[in-house]
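HUMAN: Ready with one sample?

ASSISTANT:
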Amino acid sequence: MPSTFDSRFDIEYDGEIPDSVDDAALRRMETVAAVFDESVRIPGIGYRIGIDPILGALPVAGDAVSALFSLYIVAESAYLGVSYSTLLKMLANVTIDFVGGSLPYAGTVFDAVWKANKRNVELALEDLARAVDEQ
């Protein structure tokens, strides 16, 4: 019997997540996304950033470290059974984040806005819920 998964983000997906999906894995993915994309609230405006833009201050190397952690979410999604096409979209998000974040000066702002990890968690949840609906 499929179950619902309460995401810590404002992610809405149609359907339910299969019972066979490891909730702990989903929580780990969300934790990585939260740390890298939304762990710090900017006072006064309420916008949230993570350590991704902070790591991005180290040219290329910081973005490479961030991309490696982002690939964890992709790998965990593959393990959970996310479709190949969704995995490609997730890899595209990581690539865009790496390239955009590597831009001098503007890269830090790009990292604060793009939030590839949160996008990838959303893609994974949508894909897993869609798989249940198609059964």
